TrEMBL record:
Highest taxon in the source lineage: Bacteria
Organism field: Streptomyces corynorhini
Chain ranges of the HTH araC/xylS-type domain: 215-316
Gene Ontology MF: a single term: DNA-binding transcription factor activity
Protein name per UniProt: AraC family transcriptional regulator
UniProt keywords, alphabetically: DNA-binding, Transcription, Transcription regulation
Keyword DNA-binding: yes
Amino acid sequence: MKETVFRTDDIPVGERFDYWHDLMVNTVCPMEIRTPSTADFQAEMRIVQLGRLVVWPTSLAALKWTRSSRMIRSTDPDYYHLTLPLSGRVDVAQRDHRTVHYRRQMYIVDTYQPFDCRNTGNSMRGVGLEIPKDLVELPPDTVRRLLAHQISGREGIGAYLADFLTRVAESPSPRPADAARLGGILTDLLNATLAHNLDVEEELSPTARRQSLALSVKAFIRENLGDPSLTASAVAASHHISNSYLHGMFRGEETTVSAWIKQLRLEHIRRDLADPCQRALPISHIAARWGFTHYAVFCRAFRAAYGVPPRDYRNVTSGAAPLGTTVDA
């Protein structure tokens, strides 16, 4: 798929800010911008179309961008705009609410209402998402409660949305057939994240509600891997669903809940064993950190998954002793 890229590096130094200003006042949702210094202004933005959603990986020098009542009267697009900061700091204000956002602290604004945003450091990097309002399953009055508030992309369901947007930003633009499919996935992640943060999952459609529950279950498992008491029954109880319903959710993934928990734990341990900085930690300590309280059980599981005992794996991957050399567990 052909992608569109705007970058000030392609423009003569003295014309760069004017170029970016003209770009911003001629978008679907025009905005006025200001910067502390127009000299050698730096900015770059890609446009990635995923179905009806538009993703904007962006990097900006210090900048303030504002959507005024006058601009809203002249252009009235029916959009929300969500931003995932990846570096820097962004101050956001809409509907008499102002918040500060750092890395992976997302926010959403309504383009039909005035807002102003500013990155107060030297620069910021982030991913924007332009969302037609009819793709959001929640009523506008419900979404309004979340405008300009922090939406965590560091944990829970929001982490899945943040990870997805980050991968889009770091990858080449997809083929048209893949773009439509990815747009559908992104829409589901967005609706699940908004509903979870507003605690209104019951207002989603049955399909979106199941998707939201599945994401919530997986986020809960990932965040509690170190707890030895994490079992399928504990996961079901925490989400007020039956064990059979939980197992049914995983049936289409060709695995079981217990097997997925064990797989995730082993993968974390495998990475830790390959980390030279953790070489001094006993293997039994690393295993316990990820929920394995019985060392012999862990060793059997690790060997079944990776074909070698954990000691030998650490020796090879961390550049220590040759394969087969025994070290303390």
